[in-house]
Amino acid sequence: MTTPAPRGLRRDTSNKVLGGVCSGLARQFGLSVGGLRLAFVISCVLPGPQIVAYALLWLLMPAG
Question: Residue 41's Cα: distance from chain center in Å?
Fold first, then answer.
């Protein structure tokens, strides 16, 4: 018997590169993890609070 995956928005600790935020978001919304990570890295060259938002999500999203 397997344990069901946790529901809700959670960081993915088994498929993480930095904090598991991108992989958790990709899992929640059914997106490609690589594509979401690439989009985040590309967005970092644009002005805006992307790194601050990532850090906040890392702190606020429970591990799962």
Answer: 13
